[in-house]
Design a protein that fits this description.
The complex is a heterodimer of chains A (302) and B (152). Chain A folds into two domains: 7-130 and 284-298, Rossmann fold; 133-282, 3-Layer(aba) Sandwich (Rossmann fold). Chain A has a five-stranded parallel β-sheet. Chain A has a four-stranded parallel β-sheet with strand order 2-1-3-4, with helices on both faces. Chain A is of the alpha/beta class. In chain A, strand 6 (179-183), helix 7 (192-195) and strand 7 (202-205) form a beta-alpha-beta unit. Chain A contains nine helices and nine strands. With 152 residues, chain B is mainly beta. Chain B folds into two domains: 3-95, Aspartate carbamoyltransferase regulatory subunit, N-terminal domain (Alpha-Beta Plaits, 2-Layer Sandwich), CATH 3.30.70; 101-151, SH3 type barrels (Roll). Chain B is 14% helix and 39% strand. Chain B is built from three helices and eleven strands, in the order H-E-H-E-E-H-E-E-E-E-E-E-E-E. Chain B has helices at residues 3-6, 25-32, 67-76, and strands spanning 14-21, 41-48, 54-61, 81-86, 89-95, 101-103, 106-107, 124-130, 133-137, 143-145, 150-151. In chain B, strand 8 (124-130) and strand 9 form a beta hairpin. Chain B is globular. Chain B starts with a helix and ends with a strand. Classes of the chains: A alpha/beta (302), B mainly beta (152). At the A-B interface, helix 4 of A face loops of B.
Chain lengths: 302, 152
């Protein structure tokens, strides 16, 4: 494993090894144990597009392991504005650091960057494309919450058409033989280029009530206003896919809700205090998972 | 040289593209961007053929096909023959085999793909299916069906 551009770059074995190491690193991620496994190592974080969770959790992961970060959170402060190409920028940064984390608004940017980087390149999100570390932390969370990540019935709700997290996660969950239920309005349904490649059982639904009581995991994504030309239509659709504690009375008591965050109104705040809410633990899990990945990529303690 | 290649007078030097899928010749000409280049070109369509029931043939004078042009031909009509003619004789004979991937032959239909936005970037596609043709951008992952492929 040199670069991590897409979750499909990782074999099942590599995924399991990262998740196993992430579990061991939880006390370090929480600051209860010290580690120096990345002592002296430098991660360059290049954000050509804003991000909060991805950037902060990678910076925390690096620092908890004794490493440091350089980089930028906003391209306006870089030569990018002077017309520098991505490839030139990456070649330069790769000379300054032991690994490069890239977030970029255009699809395929991470693949192009990886072809021109001498050090491991991690895709932190390329436009509507891939975001493999999000998928790893989603898998880790499912495994932590359910004690397994095989043979589960996983529901995905909301914007399945444009949501990159649900595309990558579907592929990964299919590898581990889960059953997928896609719940969305027709206009935001899971694209066929995703479902065509799924090797597991899956079904599509318009209504959450149709499948809720069978689900082990409900993965909720935000329906974005900008996807709708008409505000009225947006309000109508968005309100039909709101999860609140009332609705959850029909769910299995072991059912867990995940969300890549930020959430707006799709999960009502009264769900936060129920046993179903796993999304804040999920956000924390980004730290140990990214620690494990960084260790494997830039040679810390195995 | 077979009778079919004699239908129009033989060429001294150049390339004869033979066994092009019947009806596909015009697309091949467009993709190879040979029109308006001042090259003498003969396009024969629906020529009776022993191998298939009919075929298209293109004769290009005083010009040998480049590697990327052969790739375009292979995409549009896998199995077509490329005959390089030198002094009225077939000097080289190749079959345009469908490659596993193509570089700088087509452009990605995703406007937000990095290959359409980065100065100097080359496009790259993997061939995921030969018939019907379907290619996938190595960068953004977009799959493009034959009718939607835009050649460079």
């Amino acid at each position: 494993m040199k670069h991590v551009v897409s979750i499909s770059d990782l074999s099942k074995k590599q995924i399991l090894s990262i998740l196993k190491r992430a579990k061991e690193l939880v006390p370090v991620a929480k600051g209860k144990k010290k580690s120096k496994s990345l002592d002296g190592k430098i991660l360059a974080t290049c954000f050509f597009e804003p991000s909060t969770r991805t950037r902060l959790s990678f910076e925390t992961a690096m620092q908890r392991l004794g490493g440091t970060c350089i980089g930028f959170a906003d391209p306006s402060a870089t030569s990018h504005l002077k017309g520098e190409t991505l490839v030139d920028g990456i070649r330069m940064v790769a000379g300054y650091a032991d690994a490069v984390l890239l977030r970029h608004p255009q699809e395929g940017s991470a693949r192009l960057a990886s072809e021109n980087s001498e050090v491991p390149l991690i895709n932190g999100g390329d436009g509507a494309g891939q975001h493999p570390t999000q998928t790893l932390l989603d898998l880790f969370t499912i495994n932590e919450e359910m004690g397994k990540m095989e043979g589960l019935n996983v529901g995905m709700l909301g914007d399945l058409r444009y949501g990159r997290t649900v595309h990558s996660l579907s592929h990964a969950l299919a590898k581990f033989n889960n059953k997928l239920s896609f719940i969305s309005p027709d206009s935001l349904s899971m694209p066929s280029y995703v479902t065509d490649d799924l090797s597991c059982d899956w079904s599509s639904h318009n209504s959450i009530e149709d499948v809720l009581n069978d689900l082990d995991i409900l993965y909720v994504t935000r329906i974005q206003k900008e996807r709708f030309p008409d505000l009225e239509e947006y309000k109508k659709v968005a309100s039909a896919y709101i999860i609140d504690s009332d609705l959850l009375k029909n769910a299995k008591s072991s059912m867990r809700i995940l969300h890549p965050l930020p959430r707006v109104t799709e999960i009502s705040t009264d769900v936060d205090d129920t046993k179903h809410a796993a999304y804040f633990r999920q956000a924390f899990n980004g730290v140990p998972v990214r620690m494990a990945l960084l260790e494997q990529l830039i040679g810390g303690k195995k | 040289m077979s009778d079919n290649l004699m239908r129009v007078q033989p060429i001294r030097n150049g390339t004869v593209l033979d066994h092009i899928k019947a009806g596909r010749g015009r697309k091949v000409l467009d993709a190879l961007d040979l029109i308006d280049k001042g090259t003498t070109i003969t396009l024969l369509m629906h020529v009776p053929s022993k191998k298939n029931s009919s075929k298209d043939v293109i004769k290009i004078e005083d010009r040998e096909l480049s590697e990327s042009e052969s790739q375009k031909l292979a995409l549009l009509s896998p199995g077509a023959h490329v005959n390089i003619i030198r002094n009225f004789v077939v000097a080289e004979k190749n079959v345009a085999e469908l490659p596993e991937s193509i570089s700088n032959v087509a452009i990605c239909s995703n406007d937000n793909c990095i290959s359409n936005n980065e100065r100097g970037a080359k496009t790259k596609f993997n061939i995921i299916n030969g018939n019907p043709l379907s290619i996938q951008c190595v960068y953004c992952g977009r799959k493009i069906a034959q009718d939607n492929i835009i050649f460079i």
